[in-house]
């Protein structure tokens, strides 16, 4: 049962992690981190991402303009760029390491300990990648909420709202953390503790001695 259970958990973990990594990369380049709906002109919706600002018209057209300078961006957007790149890189490295550590892969069948270490290290990378994807998304969401409820800004000034990319980023972080957990759970559950082995050996010896005494004439 354990031989079937462990490969299924590993395969599920790497597939969920792959989904999280794809969503994380998508979040990095989506321009919908913030949405600005102008009440005076409801035909246009302004959006802002990590790389560009766009205006979406009701007719279906979309025009985008890249940011001129990295240093001119708000602090949360600058740090978010770095963290999202870091998350994507760690997720890609985790996919490589955990892929070589899968039990269903025929490469390195005689090196089970090394494959187990690759899976464990890949799962840890997925955890870190998921956290570094959630942090920038949550930071931008927090700053958006603060600006939205800022009493110093006049009511006639349009307010930024949550964009679709924030929800995609939260989902990406959750998938990466879940995938890393699915990879590490079978490893932790199959490990044998030294204390259990220590008590199991004397018990087996006692049973053997008992059998020998019964078989003697």
UniProtKB/TrEMBL annotation:
Bilayer-spanning residue ranges: 79-97, 118-142, 162-183
UniProt topology in membrane: Multi-pass membrane protein
Compartments reported by the entry: Cell junction, Tight junction; Cell membrane
Principal place of residence: other
Pfam families assigned to the protein according to its UniProt record, in alphabetical order: PMP22_Claudin (PF00822)
A GO-annotated cellular component: plasma membrane
Keywords tagged on the record: Cell junction, Cell membrane, Membrane, Tight junction, Transmembrane, Transmembrane helix
GO molecular function: structural molecule activity
InterPro entries (UniProt xref): Claudin, Claudin_CS, PMP22/EMP/MP20/Claudin
Function description: Claudins function as major constituents of the tight junction complexes that regulate the permeability of epithelia.
Family (UniProt): Belongs to the claudin family.
Name of the protein described by the UniProt record: Claudin
Species assigned in the record: Accipiter nisus
């Amino acid at each position: 049962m354990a031989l079937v259970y462990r490969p299924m958990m590993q395969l599920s973990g790497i597939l969920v992690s792959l989904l999280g990594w794809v969503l994380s990369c998508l979040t990095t380049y989506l321009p919908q981190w913030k949405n600005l709906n102008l009440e005076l002109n409801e035909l246009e919706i302004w959006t802002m991402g990590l790389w560009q600002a766009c205006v979406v018209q009701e007719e279906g057209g979309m025009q985008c303009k890249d940011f001129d300078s990295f240093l001119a961006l708000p602090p949360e957007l600058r740090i978010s760029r770095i963290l999202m790149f870091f998350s994507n890189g760690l997720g890609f490295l985790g996919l490589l390491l955990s892929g070589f550590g899968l039990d269903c892969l025929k490469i390195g069948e005689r090196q089970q300990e090394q494959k187990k270490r690759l899976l464990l290290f890949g799962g840890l990378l997925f955890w870190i990648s998921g956290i570094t994807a959630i942090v920038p998304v949550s930071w931008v969401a927090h700053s958006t909420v603060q600006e939205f409820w800022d009493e110093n800004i006049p009511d006639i000034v349009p307010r930024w709202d949550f964009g679709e990319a924030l929800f995609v980023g939260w989902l990406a972080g959750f998938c990466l953390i879940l995938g890393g957990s699915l990879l590490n759970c079978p490893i932790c559950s199959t490990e044998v503790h030294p204390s259990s082995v220590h008590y199991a050996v004397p018990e087996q010896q006692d049973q053997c001695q008992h059998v020998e005494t019964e078989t003697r004439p």
